[in-house]
Design brief:
- With about 575 residues, the chain is α+β, with helices and mostly antiparallel strands.
- It has 14 helices and 16 strands.
- Helix 9 runs antiparallel to helix 10 and helix 10 packs antiparallel against helix 11.
């Protein structure tokens, strides 16, 4: 901006010189020509006078004219010479000179007025209506863009830009571009609270656009020490109402879920961001790594790479969920065995893995997991998958072990299987038959249409139940009978934890999650150990919601005391 005025003055001087040079040059040439013409005219008149005088005297000497007549002719010739010596047309010349002088004066004035007129037209206080300020704003945008690209810019320059913008916006508070630029400048300076306020000014004046709210949410998220506080969450929700797939807002939610150990929810959100397409390679790698970590910590199998159908060679991907009741009072020797064996053949496994018990586990059986090279997944056309929780830790089934079987399966197609082990009713199901495999026959209607609700149960700060206090997590029909549709029991020491309610947990035949349209979720910590709520118990609820297959994780916070 400081370079504008020197250039403007230089251009004004050039314009003045362009006008003045022809005038000065013409005046100089005209004066020189007039002097030469006068000298030539005087010399010519004198030569004519002398020639004519010599002729008169010759005629007098020859007697052609009398002396008095010659004297009269000489006198007339002298008067003619004097007339020729006087300036011709003094009145017209004076008028012409005056007119020329006046015209030159007008042009001189115009030449001098051009720079002054430019100042009046282009200054912010003139007729430009802020044109120079717009030029300054454009230069500021270029400087900020250079800073955001990581190019060297002085911190003093950025702060000067922020001060200049703030002063401008005091006079023009409805300048959306100015507010937005101020917000970006504050972000570069690390002044996150002030940046959020600037973006908030834009959002208040352009409520239909999600862009300023996206920047505001990021600024306030940084100001709140990278925490999804209530004010940040309100902005995120407002943006997602306008654009449900806004990637930056989904990423903020994913990072918050990951930081708070809600790994299944984080994995789902990271996957949604990636599904929308991420062009920046570094950011895509970060999201893919985050998704892999979230799935691993959630006990979920690795996400399949885009475009892949199955691993090389026969394989079976298995996810195993152990209910809180299954994990209760396990001896140190307990282990989970995941194995595949031929349908109708010998009982020796074709592939086997031994895992430590946990709420969620994942494993993939391949030919590398065979007990003998001659008997592997590659040697059987049809296999069945077995998941067993062994209390003794040995492969031989025991009377108190929990087991679920899924099959027949085509291992060559790379199927995916999910198993749940629970003392009430263990179950397993085929999630994906795999490439080129035909789906198995439809299971029973209750299993085909069943739903499962994953619930992340957490305890609010300030509530301190006894570690061995009973925790009941159940679903009930709003306005219906008080008996739960599904219930799970665990202890307060296990919180936070992920609990899944499904039709296998129904307390009464014919009344399950699949049989109602809406449910309410409740988590209660009881002091007495009884199911009925009593004063002093801790409780939280969520819903009502519609249970559907593929239900996303529902957060449920135990945050109040029963009166």
């Amino acid at each position: 901006m400081t370079a504008f005025w020197p250039f403007a003055l230089l251009l004004g001087a050039g314009a003045a010189a362009f006008v003045l040079f022809p005038l000065v040059r013409t005046s100089m040439l005209r004066g020189s020509a007039d002097g030469r013409d006068a000298s030539l005219r005087r010399a010519s008149n004198l030569a004519i006078y002398e020639d004519r005088l010599a002729e008169i005297r010759a005629d007098q000497d020859s007697g052609a004219i009398a002396a008095d007549e010659a004297a009269a002719l000489e006198a007339e010739l002298a008067r003619s010479l004097l007339r020729d010596a006087e300036p011709e047309g003094d009145g017209d010349a004076g008028a012409t000179a005056a007119s020329a002088t006046e015209g030159r004066g007008l042009l001189y004035g115009a030449a001098l007025a051009a720079p002054l007129l430019a100042v009046v037209l282009y200054a912010d206080w003139g007729f430009s209506l802020g044109a120079l300020a717009d030029l300054s704003l454009a230069e500021d945008v270029q400087g900020l863009a250079a800073a955001e690209r990581g190019e060297e810019t002085g911190g003093g320059e950025m702060r000067e830009l922020a001060v200049r913008l703030a002063a401008r916006l005091e006079a023009e508070p409805d300048d959306l571009d100015g507010w937005f630029l101020l917000g970006r400048t504050r972000l570069q300076l690390g002044e996150f609270e002030a940046a959020g306020a600037a973006f908030g000014e834009v959002a208040a004046r352009a409520p239909e656009s999600p862009v300023p709210r996206v920047f505001q949410a990021q600024a306030l998220y940084m100001a709140d020490d990278r925490t999804l506080t209530a004010r940040v969450r309100a902005i995120v929700d407002a943006v997602l109402t306008i654009d449900p797939q806004q990637p930056i807002m989904l990423e903020l939610l994913a990072m918050d879920a990951f930081q708070n150990r809600r790994f299944p929810e984080a994995a789902d959100l990271f996957a949604r961001v990636l599904a929308g397409g991420v062009e920046d390679e570094a950011r895509r790698r970060f999201l893919e790594d985050s998704l892999a970590r979230a799935r691993g910590l959630a006990g979920l199998p690795p996400a399949p790479a885009p475009g892949t159908v199955a691993a090389d060679g026969p394989s079976i991907a298995v996810s195993v969920e152990l209910s809180p009741a299954a994990l209760a009072e396990l001896p140190p020797s307990a282990a989970v065995f995941v194995l595949a064996r031929p349908v109708g053949g010998p009982r020796m496994p074709l592939a086997v893995k031994r895992l430590a018990p946990a709420a969620s586990l994942a494993a993939t059986l391949t030919v590398e997991d065979a007990m003998a090279p001659a008997m592997s997944l590659a040697t059987a056309d049809q296999v069945e998958l077995v998941a067993r929780l062994s209390r003794s830790g040995t492969a031989v089934p025991g009377p108190d072990d929990l087991e679920a079987v899924v099959g027949p399966l085509d291992a060559a197609a790379g199927p995916r299987v999910a198993v749940r082990l629970d003392p009430g009713a263990s179950s397993g199901r085929l999630l994906e038959a795999g490439a080129g495999a035909s789906a198995p026959p439809e299971p029973a209607a209750a299993e085909a249409t069943g739903v499962a609700i994953p619930i992340l149960v957490e305890l609010a700060d300030g509530l301190t139940p006894a570690p061995d206090a009973s925790v009941f997590v159940f679903a009930r029909e709003p306005g219906g009978p008080p008996m739960p549709l599904a219930v799970a029991r665990l202890t307060a020491a296990e919180l936070p934890t992920l609990v899944t309610l499904d039709d296998s947990m129904a307390m009464m035949p014919g009344r399950s999650l699949s049989g109602v349209g809406r449910v309410e979720l409740v988590a209660r910590i009881t002091r007495s150990g009884g199911v009925v709520a009593a004063p002093g118990d801790f409780e939280g609820s969520a819903g009502p919601l519609e249970p559907t297959p593929g239900q996303r994780v529902v957060p449920l916070l135990i945050d109040r005391v029963v009166e």
